[in-house]
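User: I've been going back and forth on whether these two constructs are worth ordering. Before I decide, could you fold them both?

Assistant: Sure. I'll take them in the order you sent them. The first construct and its structure tokens:
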Amino acid sequence: MKNIVLTGFMATGKTTVGKKVATNMSFGFIDTDKMIEKMANMTVSDIFEKYGEDYFRRLEKAAVIKAARLKNFVIATGGGVVLNPSNIVQLRKNGVVICFTARPEIILRNIGKNKDRPLLMVDNPEEKIRQLLREREPFYRFADYTIDVSDMTIDEVAEEVIKAYIRLKKG
């Protein structure tokens, strides 16, 4: 069985939905950001603050290589994992890549007062979301399937992921 790889912008529900899909499919679940935190023994925010984004992306690449070797897992990735094309190549070797999208205002609502989003620690987070979405959009196109989660419940997204996975793994 191939892995189910969830990509997409931050706060689109990759971890929450991923856990639900893993339970429903009797798959394991892993979150690459949690792997990175374990490797560095610090939070993603602390890594960004202390060492910068480049260092974080190197750790992310190592986490992706480890995660891609797993079998029968749902892998939730960080929002910027797609910025390194080799990450997607790795994840695709044994996985179906499904990308979550959402409107900027939905993303901002989902983030709420969460201070663990280092890229959004700016004066106008919604504008920063729009900018990052524009920059990353070409990278998100490499997914095997895309779901706009803006107006969907967690259960609806999980169901859509499972349906897409079943269709895609046959092909």
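The second construct, handled the same way:
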Amino acid sequence: MCRSIKTLYNFEPPATEQEIRAAALQFVRKLSGFNVPSRANEETFNRAVDEVAATAARLIDSLVTTAEPRDREVEAERARARSALRFGSGPSA
């Protein structure tokens, strides 16, 4: 769906409220097609972000796993490696 929405569950340290809200914002942007809503839609847009964030937080808090929490730095390094393979290791001269 939206590449900037990242998995937030089962990480050490746990996802912050800001990370959950950022994911909710990206989700609502994708659904609505608005990067920034018009004044007429701003209240509805912001309410949707709040509701999605609250639902996402409840979901994350309710999930159960026996897997070890993933390390954010290890996952970030894996993502950088995948990106380097996909797009090349750097800008060409």
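Notes on the second construct follow. The mean pLDDT is 89. The helical segments are 17-32, 39-62, 72-87.
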